[in-house]
Design a protein that fits this description.
With 93 residues, the chain is mainly α. It has helices spanning 5-30, 33-47, 52-58, 61-77, 87-92. It contains 5 helices and no strands. Helix 3 (52-58) packs antiparallel against helix 4. It starts with a helix and ends with a helix. This is 2-hydroxyacyl-CoA dehydratase. It comes from Dyella japonica A8.
Amino acid sequence: MAINKDAYRQFQEELAALDKDQEKRRTESKEVPKERARREFLALRERYKLSVADVVAFFPEEEGIVYLQGLIAAAESAPPRKRRVSRKVAEQD
């Protein structure tokens, strides 16, 4: 009984895709649930080009306020970036 080579190749590709999906699930299962939810949320926000106002309007008012407060706190707690001085400016001084 001869096996069609195209069917065999397609079967091998499907097996490889299943293995890849299984590896991805294993990696995601090690991820902290809160971090996974955050990553998925940000991906959806990016995919649908949602603004902060869209996101806040989606939540009940109290949760929207908490979300905005979290954004503000994250922005304030981020360490300030040091300004780089170009070599030409440094050499002139």
